[in-house]
Amino acid sequence: MPSQTDTEPAIRFDNVEKRFGDNVVLHDLNFSVAKGDRVTLIGPSGSGKTTILRLVMTLEEANNGYIYVDGEPLTHEERGGKRVELKEKHKNEVRKRIGMVFQQFNLFPNMTVMENLIEAPVHVLKMSKADAIEKAKGLLEKVGLSDKENAHPLELSGGQQQRVAVARALAMDPEILLLDEVTSALDPEIVGEVLNILRDVAKETDITMLIVTHEMQFARDVSNRVLMFDGGKIVEESDPETMFTSPKEQRTRDFLSAVLGNN
Known about the structure:
There is one protein chain. By secondary structure, the chain is of the alpha/beta class. The protein has a domain at 107-173. The chain is 38% helix and 26% strand. Strands 8-9-10-3-11-12 form a six-stranded mixed β-sheet, sandwiched between helices. Strands 2-1-4-5 form a four-stranded antiparallel β-sheet, covered by helices on one side. A two-stranded antiparallel ribbon has the order 6-7. It starts with a helix and ends with a helix.
């Protein structure tokens, strides 16, 4: 018989609500991401897409509802009809399965590239330093930065920093990779080098990916599902081909027309 985690989705949102003051950013959100799926969230700025990633990464906490990772509650569970917060130790264990690449790189500026890559594997996963370095060297080769292991982040271009950030996320062997507008802080001519590396990750691994991007061609290339968000709700969802060639909802058509420059 398959175990619970074999049959459960990688991520599941169950009636999740998120407010910032009086502003309700997510309304009773229900959706799931199956294991190995590549799901892209599109929609206008302020529609709640990045908040979803921050909730999964536990950088924000939902005001109501539940989030599950591999069938396990992430921050809260229901006990006796009440929503109860789980201990930090539990949250940390579940969070180990999740990697995130941020818009603004978020590298440690006082550490070398190598130190950035081995910090979490050594201290969180308890990997030996030698094994962590060996793994990091392989990842730096993969992202084309083998010659930068002793550089500090501020000595690197934005594109190089973001490639290091991708390698750092992969160094934790995540089951789930969250990508938050990973090219929006980059000069247009170097966007492609970062996206190509992520295309390779999608092609060569079975990592579940939840992606927020305005790069529609990238969304089309790597996703097997696209969700259109507006006002904290899912307006439409479909496979990429349908979403980008014949969306059903007028709101989706208007958004894609604006983003893609169609008449």
